[in-house]
Amino acid sequence: MGAVLETGQYSDMTFLVRDASKPLLAEDSTADQNGSNCLRAHRVVLASRCDWFRRALTSGMKESIERTIHVYDTDKESFQEFLKFIYTGHLETESKSLENLVELMALSDQYE
């Protein structure tokens, strides 16, 4: 299932990720448009494995209509790892720093 996330094949939604703790630079908006701050995912996988995403993607909220979710509270790498965990149910903890693990725990709490 992780390969499906990595390839982005048949993905039908986008996450635009920007760490709000870092200053917004002019090139950040260009990066969003060019896709460097974008992560692609599959609504059906997210909705089936996470209640928060199920509610957001099936309730007629802005996210379900636009198929885009803006994420301002983490960096792209951490959110990508969070999505990988949702897809696979597995997390490689040995290669993660304590800071990375705390960030992933905060994301899992936020999107529970």
Automatic annotation (TrEMBL):
It comes from the Eukaryota. It holds the Pfam family BTB. This is Kelch repeat and BTB domain-containing 4. It comes from Paramuricea clavata (Red gorgonian). The lineage of its organism: Eukaryota, Metazoa, Cnidaria, Anthozoa, Octocorallia.
